[in-house]
Amino acid sequence: MKFADCFAHIGKDPLVDAFEPAKGSTFPPAQPQRMQSTKLDIPFQQWAPGAFISRSDRPLCLYVHIPFCRHRCLFCPFYRYATHAGFSAEYAELLLKEIALTADALGKERHQRRVDAVYFGGGTPSDLSGTDLAAVIESLRSQFSIDSETEITVEGRIRGFTSEKVEAWRKAGANRVSIGLQSTDTAFRRRLGRLADRKEILETLHAAKNSGVILVADLIYGLPGQTSEMIAEDIRFLAEESPVDGLDLYALKAFADSPLLQQIDRGRLPPLPGTVDRAQLFRRASVDLDQFGFEHFTRQHWRREPGERSLYNRLAKGDSDILPFGSAAGGRIGPITLMQEPTMESYRKQVLANEKPVHARSRSQPISEREQFAQTLSHAVEHRQLPPLKAWPKTPNLALEDLILNWRYAGLLTAVPECCHTPISLSSAGSYWALHLRDLALKACFPES
Ligand code: SF4
Q1: I need a surface site. Which of 63, 79, 246, 392 has the fewest CB within 10 A?
Q2: Is the pLDDT of residue 193 over 90?
Q3: Kind and range of the H or E element at 176?
Q4: What is the pTM of this model?
């Protein structure tokens, strides 16, 4: 790619005109960042304590993965196992054992690091029984330095969620609940494999909020057949009738061979919205969220309650450590990336053999200037920014300022900072194109890569 290709087209509507979508792409293109790494062939208890303590000045998160759901939603790439009788007690028991194994391996020094955030994701954590999930939360609290400021989030969905469950999690220490909605339109939800109706949605959201937790919900834009009116009504409903404190808004990622694309191919669902319609959905959602008093807090998150910190999601995008628990959970300690045993069979086997069920890979050190800048960019765009120009690598491209000016004129930045030490803020359209801007900034500085 040439430097000139990094410039945006200055048109009437930056959401639609700024860049040409990659052929066949249905959402703003973004290239995954790949890093060189080598497998660590020594057991966790040998390398982890030193690596863990050496990072005591960095934020720490715990991530617990629950790879079970009642059934598969059509659009979802994360579905692994169907819930079945007895799954909750068995999985919770394995998690309790793994938490104890991890604590033993890290030793007493683990208490020197305070935990900033704990996240139960999946899958569907709310499908575990209230007492089983509460026992896991309590175990983490007893083994790690978790205090009242630690954000503890449980992800859930409407079906299977009860006020007794949320009360049990809250008593155990959870203080934030994130409910996956995707849409609040009953008929539309059912076509996508989400069965609960609006009445159940409202009852669940109020039950969760009444327990005293911070409550967030998520929506998806770009679903087949979704219209601007539908997403506007989702936002009105959540803003006016529900007690949510925050909202995640994700672009649909349509994965090849997903059940969603298969249903579209068979004519059972309408086609995916095109580039213009997708942009209109984002625009309508972000304008309406603004009008209902929500602050566009991070790239994909809005909030209307300052107590809603979205801490785990923010830390996970920065230079924090994440200790993983559960089958198929991912994490990292500094330059070491962690991936837990991917199947329940291999996970169970390792835990029952008293081993931390994890594979570790160490990134090549020192990391290149390009990789360092890629990390800086990734962190900045999550906060709806580009790094200050002073932080951009020295580059043969003397025209970086011209590029920034172009992106500003194209409507992707709110202003051009006068000082090269000031971060560059993305506009709403810039947030829509944020991952593409990240990739272009990297190309502009490292044209040969
Ligand atoms: S409940 Fe969540 S994780 Fe499970 S299939 Fe549906 S969207 Fe995916």
Answers
A1: 79
A2: no
A3: strand 176-182
A4: 0.94
